[in-house]
Amino acid sequence: QVQLVESGGGLVQPGGSLRLSCAASGTGFSIHAMGWYRQAPGKQRDLVAGITSGGSTNYADSVKGRFTISRDNAKNTVYLQMNSMKPEDTAVYYCNVVVVENDTWRSANYWGQGTQVTVSS
User: Fold this and answer.
1) Could you give the maximum distance between any two Cα atoms of the chain, in Å?
2) Which of 20, 71, 74, 109 is the most exposed place for a label (fewest CB within 10 A)?
3) DSSP structural state of residue 62
4) Residue 28: strand, helix, or coil
């Protein structure tokens, strides 16, 4: 079983910055990919950024050049640095991890509880 704890959300003015963190804990698994999704009211949950165990990254077009995803494999933690933020970045942000279970070699997908990010003056 994997537990995810997110932190770092809040209120920021347009043009400001926030940094989200998501720490994974538990035993019996290896983390493959980690990522961040977001969901605005009335909209579907969309990928913001993802990073593989090898460090390859992928970003939504709307955040390229403004957001940076990174991970600390020793701490099983993924970060999302958000700069030059816009009101349209307002959403609940969810951490997502894909793991492989050591005993079964099955992959499993886990979600964090979500953290609210609001960009407003």
Assistant:
1) 50
2) 74
3) G
4) coil
